[in-house]
């Protein structure tokens, strides 16, 4: 069983970024969707990313952005991975010459299987809760039982995770990675650094149970 990775999303300042890295985060997420309370301007994200050490992935989150807007971000921000949360097609996601993950707002098991078929070039699928009209980041949990057992190793589990339930999620699903934002915040876009540390410790603790 490979180690479950941890992504801390919704990073808006260097203090939270470096604290998450020190706690053991494998990836940091930067939200470029302007309607999100965790939006970070490209100029600010560039300054934060410049301080992130090697071997920590910097992930840019987009929602149905115009192609030019994505390229403008990529021209100034050091991103290793892209995350698409809208209705983007596979051809759209592939055009930026970066590995990408595709978010799926889960309603049914078939929805997950369909997404796997529609986005064969995606590195992973990120599974989040479905809330009508909201592309993600709601903090709501979905039914983990909808995740096909044979696909668990491929998914990044998101949606309603926090330090109190992530060990259960890791033990039950055994996903490739977990992704958290609101579950470790003290305010929208501001992390509770103690909660980040506890979240990552709980992921590690759960893996010792396998």
The string of secondary-structure elements, in order, is EHEHEHEHEHEEHEEEH
Low-confidence stretches: none
Percent of residues in beta strands?
15-25%
Q: What's the overall average pLDDT, rounded?
A: 92
Task: Give the total of beta strands.
Answer: 10
What is the share of helical residues? 25-40%
CATH class descriptor = Alpha Beta
CATH architecture: Alpha-Beta Barrel
Global morphology: globular
Count of helical regions? 7
CATH topology: TIM Barrel
Overall tally of domains: 1
Task: Give a quick account of the main beta sheet: strands, pairing sense, barrel closure.
Answer: 8 strands, parallel, barrel
Q: What's the CATH H-level superfamily name?
A: Aldolase class I
Strands side by side in the biggest sheet: 1-2-3-4-5-6-7-8
What distance lies between the first and last C-alpha atoms, to the nearest angstrom? 8 Å
Quickly give the structural class: alpha/beta
Radius of gyration equals: 16 Å
Keywords:
single chain; 210 residues; alpha/beta; TIM Barrel; eight-stranded parallel beta barrel; two-stranded antiparallel ribbon; 7 helices; 10 strands; globular
Account of the protein in words:
- The structure is a single chain.
- The protein is of the alpha/beta class.
- The chain has one domain (5-207): TIM Barrel (Alpha-Beta Barrel).
- It is 31% helix and 21% strand.
- Strands 1-2-3-4-5-6-7-8 form an 8-stranded parallel beta barrel, surrounded by 4 helices. Strands 9-10 form a two-stranded antiparallel sheet.
- Strand 1 (5-8), helix 1 (14-23) and strand 2 (27-31) form a beta-alpha-beta unit.
- Helix 1 (14-23) packs parallel to helix 7 and helix 6 packs parallel to helix 7 (193-207).
- The mean pLDDT is 92.
- It comes from Oleiphilus messinensis.
- Keywords: Amino-acid biosynthesis, Aromatic amino acid biosynthesis, Isomerase, Tryptophan biosynthesis.
- GO terms for molecular function: phosphoribosylanthranilate isomerase activity.
- Belongs to the TrpF family.
- Its EC number is 5.3.1.24.
């Amino acid at each position: 069983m490979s180690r479950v990775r941890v992504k801390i999303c919704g990073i808006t300042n260097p203090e939270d970024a470096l604290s998450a890295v020190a706690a053991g985060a494998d990836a940091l997420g930067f939200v470029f969707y302007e309607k999100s309370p965790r939006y970070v301007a490209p100029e600010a994200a560039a300054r934060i990313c410049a301080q992130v050490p090697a071997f920590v992935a910097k992930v840019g989150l987009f929602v149905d952005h115009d192609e030019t807007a994505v390229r403008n971000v990529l021209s100034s921000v050091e991103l290793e991975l892209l995350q698409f949360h809208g209705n983007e097609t596979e051809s759209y996601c592939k055009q930026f010459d970066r590995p990408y993950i595709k978010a799926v707002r889960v309603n049914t098991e078939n929805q997950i299987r369909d997404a796997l078929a529609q986005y064969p070039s995606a590195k992973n699928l990120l599974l989040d809760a479905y809330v009508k009209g909201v592309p993600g980041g709601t903090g709501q949990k979905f039914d983990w039982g909808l995740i096909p057992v044979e696909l668990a190793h491929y998914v990044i589990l998101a949606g309603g995770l926090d330090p109190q339930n992530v060990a259960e999620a890791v033990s039950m699903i055994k996903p490739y990675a977990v992704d958290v934002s609101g579950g470790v915040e003290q305010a929208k876009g501001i992390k509770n650094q103690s909660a980040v540390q506890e979240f990552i410790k709980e992921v590690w603790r759960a893996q010792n149970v396998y």
